Amino acid sequence: MRTSRTLILLLLIGFLLPSCAPATPAGTDVPALSCGDGLCGALEDSANCPQDCHLAPVSGKTLVTYIESEDIGQIAVQVAYPAAGRYAEGAGVVVIVSPFFTEVDGFVTEPDLTAIGLIQVSYLWPGKTDSRSGVRSEGEYDYGGETSIRALRDVIRFAAGRQADVNGRSISSLVPVRPLTDEVGLYAFSHAGIAAVNVLALYGDSLPGLQYFVGRENPTVDTISCLEIGHYDENGFPVVNPLYAYPTSYSPHAITISLDTLRWDFDYTDDRADFVGRPYLDLNQDGSLSAGDHVFGWQVPQMFGKRYYSKAFTQALLDNGALTLETWPADLATPQEAAEAWAFRQMDTQFMKIANLQDADFKVMLVFARSDHAQVAADKPHIHQAYQGFRFEAQPAGTQLRWVRLNPDRSYIQQFLPQAGTDYPDNPANTAPTDWLKIGEWAYPASSGNLAAVAAVAEMADRSHAGRWDENIGAALYTFTPPTAAP
């Protein structure tokens, strides 16, 4: 495994070699650079204006511009582009969806998709600031709420060439590599996938050019987002909720766990978080936290200055008498607040909305490792729910079922890791385990997370470009070699 990690590191170092400064497309109306004003402008990057544009962790060049989002204001957008496009015709465009439960101090630039010849678009949620450059989006931050999703819609429209920036410039006029604006994809890691599904459900009909969605280990419902079925402890070992069992706890739209023994420990503190108190299952029913009880982890979604557990979990704290409204912690969402927040931040109700869209025939790839970055249940209920939702509920209008694949073709892994063998799955599209307790056989090694993510995007971009949606292509459709750096 150490050899694999070393090779991957060497490959990534190779991708990070500097490239020649790109020429401005002929005929483009180019304003003068304003280097030194503290903002990384649309024609400035880390090479020509390092004081305004700090080096971004991508191998391509970056620029920042703004788009206008109605009733919100100006949204900051970062465009990262390669020295040469992946295809002779240009480069596909991928929008990287930002997380919202956890604080992000700037533009999300991982994985580096410029290294495989694609253009990647990142952005700042309304009200958020990039700590490296001081660039800020206008508006008020609502933690992935309706305002955020409208802003994301407009970012995707900009990436697809359907909306100009505040200076009237399209993405095609901003970068020297031709953006293939009818070959746009979405990539979302972890809970950012909830925002991706929301924008597809609410605005999919107004996103022409969107061809695919790559979701990596995305939670689907509140119980999963809140790690109530299990978590990793401080040493990285999985701690599974003993009351979760597949298949009895699982359904396509919910995870059901008995909460009869749910209690609250008022004395708990943790140096990794500022809050006091935590929930646990009083399994021996002795009325106090003791050996043998199940303690929930410290990581939990935080929004609006509070911790948020699932709707059912939060209500059970009140119904069981574990907490009263008089003893309710100020930093813990109330049952009403939890119900209101989760009503908009789950996938389960959105698949049918996607099915009702007229012009949203995008394809889906779900990416996941044997050891998930957050979820510990052996049957991977979040992957199961997402597969069933996209495949069987969100089918495009007038067609049978939506194209969905579990992890990339092995040939795409081998483009980066030639010795990759049967440790890496080769699952035909539109197939899934008959026994989801064996989903680990469909997953890649946990040490290859970013590699698998890049391979997945490369495959989906190539399939979109070639119009190839075979269930199993067997060989990579395109090979991309980054240009050699000039001396």
Give a written overview of the molecule.
The protein has 487 residues and is α/β, with parallel strands linked by helices. The chain has two domains: 328 residues, 3-Layer(aba) Sandwich (Rossmann fold), CATH 3.40.50; 119 residues, no CATH class. Helices cover 22% and strands 17% of the residues. It has eleven helices and 17 strands. An eight-stranded mixed sheet has the order 1-2-4-3-5-6-16-17, with helices on both faces. A hairpin with a 6-residue loop joins β11 and β12. It starts with a helix and ends in a 21-residue tail after the last helix. The N terminus is likely disordered.
Primary descriptors:
eight-stranded mixed beta sheet; disordered N terminus; 17% strand; alpha/beta; 487 residues; 11 helices
Helix/strand/pairing class, anyone?
Answer: alpha/beta
Strand fraction: 15-25%
Largest sheet: 8 strands, mixed
Uncertain spans: 1-33, 41-48
User: In DSSP terms, counting alpha (H) and pi (I) runs of 4 or more, how many helices?
Assistant: 11
Summary, kept brief:
With 487 residues, the protein is an alpha/beta fold. It contains eleven helices and 17 strands.
Layout of strands and helices, then pairs:
Layout: H1 2-15, E1 61-69, E2 73-81, E3 91-96, E4 119-123, H2 146-159, H3 171-174, E5 179-189, H4 192-203, E6 210-216, H5 222-225, E7 230-232, E8 238-240, E9 250-251, E10 254-255, E11 262-269, E12 276-281, E13 294-295, E14 302-303, E15 306-307, H6 311-319, H7 335-342, H8 351-355, E16 363-367, H9 381-393, E17 404-406, H10 410-416, H11 449-466
Parallel strand pairs: 3-4, 3-5, 5-6, 6-16, 16-17
Antiparallel strand pairs: 1-2, 2-4, 7-8, 9-10, 11-12, 12-13, 14-15
Helix pairs in contact: 2-4, 6-7, 10-11
